[in-house]
Write a structure and sequence with these properties.
alpha/beta
Length: about 550
């Protein structure tokens, strides 16, 4: 029988639970500590709890936990750069757990599960302006708490930058459709084609009875280039091009294409051009090789499609022959930042050349349209909102997303939407906003004795074909299958958890748990009684 389980030595890796054939052990998270992956996640997803549920084969529980933690898991599981995996403790054993693949699987399952209409608990209606990741997250959080939520969206369909700024090979339209359908079933109303400042004014929402408003304004305005020749035919801008591709205004491209920029939008543009049939695609970026701001996996995806890169390059002017682009005059960029880390490019005028192009797409940054936002909540860089509550200087007005933080990741916007929703809930219920605390849980250290853990191969989704039968995009990667998700969850060390002996009577003294425990926290009694004391027959009475 199990004599002891030393909680001081236990690191919660779950080896005992995974190896015990009689299901004696359970692993529970310590409420006061955070796993390294959750701490690195901008949403602070309940990764550890989801994986622990999967390790027990409870997929339904894991799906419910994922939906509660992040209603956009089907989105972030596809487009997030996976900050969590960069801090995964499993890396010290073999390689990081495929957290993004598991998140995508659980998110898809959540969207396939029919939504139960939420009973309205509150009379006060609330409004969300913008249906990007911050807006959709905030709407979902408020709706599940029983509030009547209306989302105002300037475009013809909800989704914001998720729909119009991310190529379909990364985020299929069907995923967004299922997400919007589920939110609608929960009671969220969508009013599309409603542009703030044109079709409605912010103050009008207050007069119409909305007790709180959240502005989830995305960075949907492309920064323009001032170089000579940029204003003319055959020159486009990143977000405009991506939107044209998503709406199928552009179905094919021919000739030589040059993309100006080194960020993730530039990588999406370059890959889209390659997929649409461009003869060649060249990315010219100010940054030196290895310093481009785009995430490495997006650069590698572009390289697989044959996209070429020209680092340390800047456009001097675009030379035209009538409306046609004759050539692009280029100059070497010696440095991008000054000594204080500020953007201040320096050119090496002694190194110049020309590039041929039939189409140029500038992807040099995005900004937010804040023309209709009250002046008292604006700063030089955007909107001012509390980091913890999302509340602005106008008590009933909240904000999250790119308008507050500047252009960032989808996961960061989702995290901002969750914080704003929590702030709105406290405000609407009359709570003290000052009592809302920032997320600052202690992060558990990397587990000890990685060499004692069994090495397991990481599961990956396979690459899919480049285009569908009608020439449009298909998703780039297939998701993990059910059995892959369960297998991958077993690689998780559930950092910061502790093991408990849940079913001691089932122990058959096989010593597997003691021998497998990497920290020696378990001791098994070598003597197995013929009859456990609880089951031994009573002595016969005289």
């Amino acid at each position: 029988m199990i004599r002891s389980l030393d909680q001081e030595k236990c690191i919660g890796c779950g080896t005992c639970m995974k190896s015990c054939p009689l299901d004696v052990f359970r692993v529970h998270a310590v409420p006061s500590t955070a796993s390294p992956c959750a701490a690195a996640c901008p949403v602070h997803n309940g990764i550890r709890a989801c994986h622990a549920a999967l390790q027990l084969g409870s997929v339904e529980e894991a799906v419910a936990l994922s939906w509660k933690s992040n209603p956009l898991a089907a989105v972030t599981g596809r487009v997030c750069p996976r900050f969590c995996e960069g801090k995964c403790s499993r890396s010290s054993v073999d390689s990081a757990v495929n957290i993004g693949g598991i998140e995508r699987f659980l998110g898809d399952r959540a969207l396939e599960t029919p939504a139960t209409p939420v009973r309205k608990k509150h009379v006060a209606p609330v409004a969300v302006v913008g249906s990007g990741p911050a807006g959709l997250t905030c709407a979902a959080e408020l709706a599940r708490e029983g509030f009547s939520v209306t989302v105002f969206e300037a475009q013809d369909e909800p989704g914001g930058m998720l729909r119009y700024g991310i190529p379909e090979y990364r985020l299929p339209a069907g995923v967004l459709a299922r997400l919007v359908e589920k939110l609608h079933a929960m009671g969220v109303s969508f009013r599309c084609g409603q542009r703030m400042g044109v079709d409605f004014q912010l103050e009008q929402l207050k007069k119409q009875g909305y007790k709180a408003v959240m502005l989830g304004l995305g960075a949907g305005v492309a920064r323009r280039s001032s170089v000579e020749g940029a204003d003319g035919p055959h020159v486009m801008y990143g977000l405009e091009f991506l939107q044209a591709v998503r709406t199928r205004s552009i179905r094919s491209v021919s000739g030589r294409a040059v993309v100006i920029g080194g960020g993730d939008v530039a990588m999406d543009v370059a890959q889209s051009l390659a997929r649409l049939g461009a003869e060649s695609v060249l990315v010219a970026a100010l940054e030196a090789e290895g310093e481009m701001p785009a995430f490495r996996h997006n650069i590698e995806d572009a390289q697989r499609l044959g996209v070429q890169f020209r680092p340390s390059s800047a456009v001097r002017r675009i030379v035209r022959n009538g409306e046609r682009i004759a050539e692009i005059a280029m100059v070497r960029c010696a440095s991008v930042l000054d000594g204080q880390g500020r953007f201040s490019p320096v050119m090496d005028e002694g190194t110049t050349w020309t590039e041929k192009a039939d189409l140029i797409v500038f992807a040099i940054g995005q900004a937010c349209d804040l023309a209709c936002v009250p002046q008292e909540v604006l700063t030089r860089k955007g909107m001012a909102a509390d980091d913890v509550t999302g509340q602005t200087r106008i008590p009933w007005l909240f904000a999250a997303g790119d308008a507050v933080t500047g252009p960032g990741s989808v996961a960061s916007a989702v995290g901002g939407g969750k914080r704003a929703a929590n702030g709105m809930l406290t405000y609407l219920r009359g709570g003290d906003m000052n009592l809302i605390k920032a997320w600052d849980m202690a992060v558990v250290p990397e587990p000890e004795c990685p060499e004692k853990h069994t090495r397991m191969t990481r599961e990956e989704g396979h690459l899919l074909p480049v285009a569908s039968a009608d020439g449009h995009f298909m998703e780039l990667y297939a998701g993990l299958r059910h059995e892959q998700v369960l297998g991958e969850s077993l690689r998780c060390l559930t950092c910061g958890s502790r093991a408990n002996i849940e079913h001691p009577d089932d122990c058959m003294t096989c010593f597997g748990c003691e021998m497998g425990c990497p920290t020696g926290a378990i001791r098994v009694d070598p003597i197995k009684e013929e009859w456990p004391r609880t089951l031994a027959p009573l002595p016969e009475s005289d």
